[in-house]
TrEMBL record:
This is Imidazole glycerol phosphate synthase subunit HisF. The lineage of its organism: Bacteria, Bacillati, Bacillota, Clostridia, Eubacteriales. Belongs to the HisA/HisF family. GO terms for cellular component: cytoplasm. InterPro entries: Aldolase_TIM, His_biosynth, HisF, IGPS_HisA/HisF, RibuloseP-bd_barrel. It comes from Clostridium cavendishii DSM 21758. Pathway: Amino-acid biosynthesis; L-histidine biosynthesis; L-histidine from 5-phospho-alpha-D-ribose 1-diphosphate: step 5/9. Its main location: cytoplasm. It is an enzyme of class 4 (lyase).
Length: 253
């Protein structure tokens, strides 16, 4: 079994971290820099930073904030939101990011996945996918622009295509589970993990310590991401890792 990763996520508007339920009713919870430093010291394996309104507002990412955070932490750092082309990606990596997360831009221009993978390496090309069940419950669609636009694209076909284009990792968020604290969407995650060979990061729905055990044991994902659960210290990362290790899930302590 590969070592499983625990990843806190900073959904950022302005310079503050925000959190909501099902991608709506967003409320500020604190400074992005302060949270980044906290997680660096708390034992997080990586940190994800998402500028969640950049694409919808048709603007670039807050590069100065990315640079400030990168100077404060010593764990792998993934940055996404508003990246439109290879020059944007280059600028973010130069500012200190280790990986970039592409979502809306990749859907609009799938060739960008290949460009980033070919130029910088697939290891830094993370495809972020916001997935939501269709009204008839017969599949999942890809949403973009911070969950505001239903593309009508089938999640499974899109992820298979992205892997072929060079995506090195999938950050898969269940919009149905996001912020509900009812557990990860195991059905969705297991289905995706069965069709790809690249690592899958589970996102959306973590509500208690057992949810992490379940997603690693049942869906066999490579990493689990959470936000409000960690932000409000309802679950402490160091205690979570001890719990997982005691239950035979391989983690880095």
């Amino acid at each position: 079994m590969h070592t499983k990763r625990i990843i806190p996520c900073l959904d950022v508007i302005g310079k503050n971290v925000v959190k909501g339920v099902n991608f709506i009713n967003l409320a500020s919870v604190g400074s992005a820099i302060d949270y980044a430093k906290f997680y660096n010291n708390e034992g997080a394996d990586e940190l994800v930073f998402l500028d969640i309104t950049a694409s919808n507002e048709d603007r670039g990412i807050m590069i100065d904030l990315v640079r400030s955070i990168s100077e404060e932490i010593f764990i792998p750092f993934t940055v996404g939101g508003g990246l439109k082309n290879i020059n944007d990606v280059r600028a973010i990596l130069k500012a200190g990011a280790d990986k970039v997360s592409l979502n809306s831009a990749a859907v609009k221009n799938p060739r960008l996945i290949k460009e980033v993978s070919d130029y910088f390496g697939s290891q830094c090309m993370v495809l972020a996918v916001d997935a939501k069940r269709r009204a008839d419950f017969k599949g999942f669609n890809v949403f973009i622009n911070g969950g505001r636009i239903d593309t009508g694209i089938d999640v499974f076909k899109w992820i298979e295509k992205a892997e072929k284009l060079g995506a090195g990792e999938i950050l898969l968020t269940s919009m149905d589970s996001d912020g509900t604290k009812k557990g990860f969407d195991l059905e969705l995650l297991k289905s995706i993990n069965n069709i790809v060979k690249i690592p899958v990061i589970a996102s959306g729905g973590a509500g208690k310590i057992e949810d992490f055990y379940n997603v690693f044991k049942e869906a066999d994902v490579d990493a689990a991401l959470a936000a409000s659960l960690f932000h409000y210290e309802e679950v402490k990362i160091n205690k979570l890792k001890v719990y997982l290790k005691e239950n035979n899930i391989k983690v880095r302590i």
